[in-house]
Amino acid sequence: MPLSSYIGGNARRGNLVRSRKPPQNDNSYRNSSNNFRKEDGAGATVDITTKGLYDKIQFLDEDGGPWKQGWRVSYKGDEWDSEKLKVFVVPHSHNDPGWKLTVDEYYDMQSRHILDTIVHTLSKDPRRKFIWEEMSYLERWWRDASVEKRESFTNLIKTGQLEIVGGGWVMNDEANSHYFAIIEQITEGNMWLNDTIGVVPKNSWAIDPFGYSPTMAYLLRRMGFENMLIQRTHYELKKELALKKNLEYTWRQSWDTEESTDIFTHMMPFYSYDIPHTCGPEPAICCEFDFARMHGFNYELCPWGKHPVAINQENIQERALKLLDQYRKKSTLYRTNTLLVPLGDDFRYISIDEAEAQFHNYQMLFDYINSNPSLNAEAKFGTLDDYFQTLREEADRVNYSLPGEIGSGQIGGFPSLSGDFFTYADRQQDYWSGYYISRPFFKAVDRVLEQTLRAAEIMMALVHGYCQRAQCEKLATGFAYKMTAARRNLALFQHHDGVTGTAKDHVVQDYGIRMHTSLQDLQIFMSKSIEVLLGIHHEKSDHSPSQFESAQVRSKYDVQPVLKAINAREGTSQSVVLFNPLEQTRDEVVMVIVKRPDVTVLDSNWTCVPSQVSPELQHDNSKIFTGRHRLHWKASVPAMGLQTYYVANGSNGKRFSVHSRQSLGAASLKDGWLEIMLDRRLLRDDGRGLGQGVMDNRPMNVIFHILFESNISSTSDPVSNPLPLSPSLLSHCVGAHLNYPLHAFVAKIPHELSVQPPPRSFSPLAAPLPCDLHIVNFKVPRPSKYSQQPIEDYRGLEVLKAKATSLNLLHEDIEMLGYMEQVADVGQEGHAFISPMEIQAYKLVLRPHQ
Questions:
Q1: How far apart are CA 95 and CA 210, in angstroms?
Q2: What is the helix (H) or strand (E) element at residue 548, kind and residue range?
Q3: Which family is annotated (predicted)?
């Protein structure tokens, strides 16, 4: 049976499996000109580091004139004599899956009409193009669309008029979202798209996340993406890159010495992704070419006073030359003569009239420009793929490399860059850092859903592999749709207005209810899976309740979970089953709540386990003691396995690390100082479009693990190498234990103490994995049918075949993905080489052990 396993090296993790060994610094440098800065962050040699940029920029916020955050752009006029200007105008519509309205409200009121409009207007003229990003809306539209609309949509993709960019369930945030959730949301969208329409995206489009992480670039590269586009970076950084024509570059991981993680990146140069800020450096002029702002439409008129007018034979020359002037000025900020001009905004192209106004007027302008060879320009509608293909063709013909530039073997003529683009500021001193901690309650719920989904995915894969009874097939297939819903609810919250905490109150409530529903569904599935994996047979129907329930439950979407109390009455015992979702055996102290203190703990062999009972206290002035007790004992749970217990009656070379189970804001403002922001309240709107403050704070538990350890890597000189050292293996293990806790399930009905139950445990791995590997996920990508020949219910499994694949499970070309070639058959030899910091995905074919 096919399984998907990601393996990764630690600093991002993975079935995915990932190596945790910190990379060694490589101090080798390439020959380079003194004009370019190369830094050896953690091994990589590049032309530009974002740290170097931030150190260099003075952040003066000087008034640049028409381009307020830049300068007065000019050109000589002969720049396009040898290579004409090729302009690709890319129509798009940014559809937030929740912000001021819920995802369902947006779909009903806007997004479904936009997709209808795209199909209708593009079908009228093959010269028209469009791009679409969010699969959450496309999947819903596809369910509602007629067969004719579906066929038209598919044909538009096949002919190249319509391109799916990114193809994730949402356009995810890159600061708060864990890489596990990012992989899940992109994979969910990409696999739905491939299964339904038969296409796999290769260009990423991220115009609205509030800052960008190199982790996202890495994941995209490992998913087979070739190019990516970003927009919201610090305005002073954009200016600095534009001055050197470095807005397009290959983004490289700071630890990558092999250039295997390089991905070509286009950074948009101006303030916003709306039409006034995309045609050129002068928004007052560009706004005149947003024809949806003409009188008669529902959009805001141009705030600069001059408004767009329809193109006709009397004004076409003046209008075309004015627009071309902006195109030329914008092109001088880039190295090539291939220019990208996005044409869209939030929820645009909602009506046929609006779409026709844009397409018709622009086509007239293009026809005029293209019919005058003396202008040395060609303009047309295009997709993101049209732009990147033409740019790469030009880069192959013309050498745009600067003397001494390192660049990349992926594409010539552009600098290499490493680093991140946080913290984002769009103007003045307006830094977008508040969303790091806005609505931390739901940031915490997000991580709970992540770890529960991962555990449930692993359990489903194990049920598929180890149990061959019909009951097991019914369990897995019966929960498949709820598992898909859980993936999609987690994916939806990764939206850059979801996990960020930047949506309206009722939208946050909608996200919370979706996550809460999925948490309950997953816990029910895990409870039933425990019975299957432990071999507990009973004659009840498949729809009957499980013998187990989660030890931790939430009554509502917006309240803290509570621990169920075990009532071990005299002469009875209560089963506690622990599931370890990690790939190493776990020996750690666990805690359950009991109603009485005179209890003891027995293991599966009916041997007493040392335990400790303490009173449960609460923050209540009138009553501190709750009447319940906390029972602690040291449990040992096999790697990715189950273990049953019974509760019966009767800088001095040291390093300080803080691990958190959820994303929080943190700052180290000086040596020896670490400040962690837990929550924030915003009384007023901050002028970012939400139109409200953020006051819906809720009680929550914040869990930290504090690690004080010897710094074994302190041999490096902190003066010559001031960059932070990689976390130790112990630190990675501490973080893993915090983020992926044991899952406890308690028997609902006590059984007689006089009857000793059989030992119950389940250990699927032949041996625990080394501590420097982590399984990001272990799941069945699609339900499979069981063979019907009579075989034993439970048999050991062996790996028949292990095939490396992309992180979204859709590519198997190792060289294209940038992975190092495996020297042996992983399935036969049982060895996989995973470099430090890497994530590797494998498709496993398992069979009963011969």
A1: 16
A2: strand 548-550
A3: Belongs to the glycosyl hydrolase 38 family.
Instruction: State the DSSP H helix or E strand holding residue 203, giving kind and residue range, or none if neither.
Output: strand 203-206
Cβ neighbours of residue 384 closer than 8 Å, sequence gap 6 or more: 90, 131, 163, 165, 203, 205, 227, 229, 340
Domain boundaries 22-418, CATH class? alpha beta
- Which residues are 297's β-sheet partners? 295
Give the span between the Cα atoms of 783 and 811, in whole angstroms: 20
For residue range 499-534, list pLDDT tens digits in order.
999 999 999 999 999 999 999 999 999 999 999 999
CA 223/CA 56 separation, integer angstroms = 34
The pTM (predicted TM-score) of the whole model is 0.88
Nearest in space to 580 (alpha carbons), one of 592, 591, 588, 572: 588
Domain extents for the chain?
2-8+784-848, 22-418, 440-545
Identical fold between 22-418 and 440-545: no
Question: Is 696 marked active-site?
Answer: no
Q: Residue 694: is its pLDDT beyond 50?
A: yes
Nearest to 642 by CA among 793, 511, 762, 802: 762
**Pairing of β 85-94 and β 338-346:** parallel
Could you tell me the strand order of the sheet in which 565-566 lies?
A: 565-566, 586-594, 625-637, 611-617
840 neighbors 846 (Cβ within 8 angstroms)? no
Q: pLDDT per residue over 7-17, tens digit each? A: 665 443 334 55
**pLDDT band at residue 146 under the 50/70/90 scheme:** very high
Q: Is 626 helix (H, G, I), strand (E, B) or coil?
A: strand
DSSP code per residue over 144-169: HS-HHHHHHHHHHHHTTSEEE-S--S
CA–CA dist 144, 137 (Å, integer): 11
H/E stretch holding 510? helix 505-533
Give the number of other Cβ atoms within 10 Å of residue 278's Cβ. Answer: 29
pLDDT (average), residues 254-265? 96
Closest CA to 329 of 274, 363, 377, 279: 279
Residue with tokens 């596990």: 180
| Catalytic residue, candidates 40, 47, 96, 208 | 208
Segment 645-659, tens digit of pLDDT? 999 988 555 678 899
Superfamily for 440-545? Glycoside hydrolase family 38, central domain (1.20.1270.50)
List the one residue out of 451, 461, 701 whose CA is nearest residue 562: 701
- How long, in residues, is the chain? 850
Query: What is the distance between the alpha carbons of residues 148 and 146, in angstroms, rounded to a whole number?
Result: 5
Task: Name, in order, each residue with C-beta under 8 angstroms of 115's C-beta and a sequence gap of 6 or more.
Answer: 132, 137, 138, 141, 145, 153
